[in-house]
Amino acid sequence: MRGIHVRKISGLAASVLLAAGMLAGCAGGTSEGENGKGSRITLYSPETPDFTKELAMKYEELNDEKVDVHYAGTNVLVNQMLAEKDNPKADVWYGGGGILPFEAAVERGILSNYIPDFAADWDIVENGIKMKHEDGKYVGVEIFVLGFSYNPELVSEAEAPKTWEDLLDPKWEGKIQFPNPAASGTATLMVMDQMMRKGEDEAWKYFEKLVKQANSMPDSGSAPTKGVAMGEAHIGIGFDFMAYEQKNKGESVDFIVPDKTPVLVNPVTLIEGGPNAEGGKKFMDFLLSEDAQQIMADWYHIPINPNVESKTPLTLEKVKAHAVDLDIDWVNENYDRVRNEWKAKFQ
After folding, report:
1. Most Cβ neighbours (<10 Å): which of 2, 42, 61, 284?
2. Which pTM was predicted?
3. What confidence category does residue 7 fall into, taking pLDDT thresholds of 50, 70 and 90?
4. What does the pLDDT look like over 299-334, one tens digit per residue?
5. Burial degree of 221 (CB within 10 A; 0-12, 13-18, 19+)
6. Angle at 49 (CA atoms; ends 70, 180), nearest 5 degrees
7. Which is nearest to 272 in space by CA: 104, 78, 111?
8. Closest CA to 176 of 161, 194, 159, 190
9. Rg (CA), the chain
10. Minimal CA–CA distance to 343: which of 197, 174, 207?
11. Which domains does the chain have, with CATH numbers?
């Protein structure tokens, strides 16, 4: 585990560290050699700590560089990067439940421009999935699918919902869990998707009905899937890998990809003015390599490198036909407003 330090940062702890001026010491992001050789890379990520630590260990095994992983929720990390804007501590930011937080950060001056050679020839949008930023501010490294987990001991695959409208069937009353959109980016994506497809008035009517179907709306994006695995709900809304990770642990849970649903890349970006830009670029290259993509696949994420086989039943080829076209500009303009309106209506 040479050089790998996974640091968990709560919102309060991050504020205290920033106020005390201690982050520079714990980030350890100064370059110790030309072109990043023998240097330290500082990675900010909200992804599972054990997962990101495994990625860091593999990178260190292949390169003469050390990696420090700093773990916190996406919003905490973004606020930290904004606070550090004049003296950046991170080199790379990876992950955040899809592209929306990255898109929101584009105009805030914290993202640099870099697209690995592996992705240089990708179209910006392929089959309704935005694969990378048009100005090189981020690139996707894996695929996330928003859909329905279900408990096979309580629901057969045949009777499980196949569309978002199916969730309103009276038979699911009191049997559904989904995350709280006022707190969860996963659920906010669900709300924004319905609004873009139905229009706001019809979408709010839809959610008034869906809320009545739910027995719980936890703040955590992964909690409904865990609730389904524990038999607390028949159906849960979440990302695909959440269900397949639970299934791999022997839990009673499986996953349905709705007929039309958000299918997103989960991106990585280089931090503007980071202390080790060359190392950061090499780490971004690594995340698209077969070595890193295999680790993602082993954690039941859908790899984006076609040479790596998914461990889940899902692949990019299988899910791209389900993808809806997300109006990113509309999302950026209305993201906070919609979350606040949800809170006012339902909490």
Report:
1. 42
2. 0.81
3. low
4. 999 999 999 998 999 988 899 889 998 888 888 888
5. buried
6. 95
7. 111
8. 161
9. 20
10. 207
11. 5-143+264-312 (3.40.190.10), 144-262+322-346 (3.40.190.10)
